[in-house]
Design a protein that fits this description.
Number of strands: 3
Radius of gyration: 25 Å
Helix content: 40-55%
Order of helices and strands: HHHHHHHHEEEHHHHHHH
CATH architecture of the largest domain: Orthogonal Bundle
Structural class: mainly alpha
Number of domains: 2
Largest sheet: 3 strands, antiparallel
Length: 331
């Protein structure tokens, strides 16, 4: 296969490598697909050539570096998003290196493009009064309001990811003895999350209004189809804006479904739940992922500070007496 057959390589990467050999999840396939959509449109504009006529040699490390810069400078993508796009490119060129040994040098240069370091922000989450204001925002007299309230309550209590929420079917919800929801999470891990009694009551009332079909979505649209991720994000933003009337601390804050997931984790941490249990609850691959919630909990740090004994030493400052040491201190 020659370098001019880039379209055939790309099609084989998705059809054979991702879907057949690796059995990648639909979310992974969709993320990689979106990356190459952006790349092909960028290449068509810069090279003035339709995607079907692109050659593998056109996509060298220099050109891909321009594409990554375009994502950040022109599209306003964050470093995290840029790195996710780069991961898709790396996966493709690892496949090319195995399939086309003649392209090994070009692939090596592309694989050497490093991920960009970025500053991790503080985890955003809601306090009890903020959660209460958010849950009161949907109108309980309307069908959509009752659906949104059930969705928000389930999200805050279980910490399900957005894709896990929208993917729930009625057969995944058990409301009798040992009430829980089942979901297929990230990394194809199936997990069960128990439900509180108040959440069970809300879900029972809500599901009584929905068609009784095992494969029917728990949170459908007015037409009965599954809610999209974008629709859920829009509903959360809408209710967060309305909740600002009841809770001033929500003003100016960006509330997303992932903030509700963080809220569930922080609530468990504040009640003394072990980090390993929180990691299992959220479906984290490693307990280290849960470490971020410890950094976010200021009250936990304040309690640790309160247990320390103040030092009796008088405050002072180190003053080097050597000229070279003084120079180094100024750097």
């Amino acid at each position: 296969m020659s370098a001019r057959e880039f379209p055939a390589l790309l099609q084989a990467f998705f059809a054979e490598r991702l879907q057949q050999q690796r059995q990648a999840s639909p979310h992974t396939v969709a993320a990689y697909r979106n990356t190459f959509r952006l790349l092909l449109r960028f290449a068509a504009t810069r090279l003035r050539r339709p995607p079907s006529r692109l050659r593998l040699g056109d996509l060298d490390a220099g050109f891909l570096g321009q594409f990554l810069a375009h994502l950040q400078q022109d599209r306003g993508n964050s470093a995290r998003t840029r790195n996710a796009r780069l991961a898709a490119l790396h996966a493709f060129f690892r496949y090319v290196a195995l399939s086309e040994p003649a392209q090994a040098l070009n692939c090596q240069r592309v694989l050497a493009i490093p991920a960009q370091r970025f500053q991790r922000g503080v985890v955003e989450y809601l306090r009890e009064d903020e959660v209460s204001a958010l849950l009161q925002a949907p109108d309980p007299t309307t069908w959509i309001g009752r659906r949104d309230r059930a969705l928000l309550l389930l999200a805050v209590q279980t910490g399900l990811r957005l894709s896990e929420l929208t993917g729930l079917c009625q057969q995944d919800v058990t409301l009798g003895r040992g009430a829980h929801v089942r979901c297929l999470g990230k990394g194809r891990k199936l997990r069960c999350t128990p439900l509180r009694l108040d959440v069970v009551r809300v879900l029972q009332a809500w599901l009584a209004e929905c068609p009784a079909a095992a494969d029917a979505p728990v949170f459908p649209t007015a037409c009965g189809s599954r809610l999209s991720d974008d629709a859920v994000e829009q509903r959360v933003r809408k209710h967060a804006a309305a909740a600002q009337q009841r809770c001033a601390s929500l003003v100016g804050r960006r509330i997303t479904p992932h903030v509700l997931r963080h809220t569930s984790a922080m609530e468990m941490l504040r009640h003394g739940v072990d980090r390993s249990v929180i990691a299992l609850w959220l479906g984290h691959e490693s307990i280290e992922t849960t470490q971020v919630y410890l950094h976010a909990d200021l009250e936990l740090k304040e309690r640790a500070l309160a247990r320390t004994t103040p030092s009796a030493l008088a405050p002072g400052r180190y003053r080097p007496d050597d000229a070279l040491l003084r120079f180094l201190e100024t750097l």
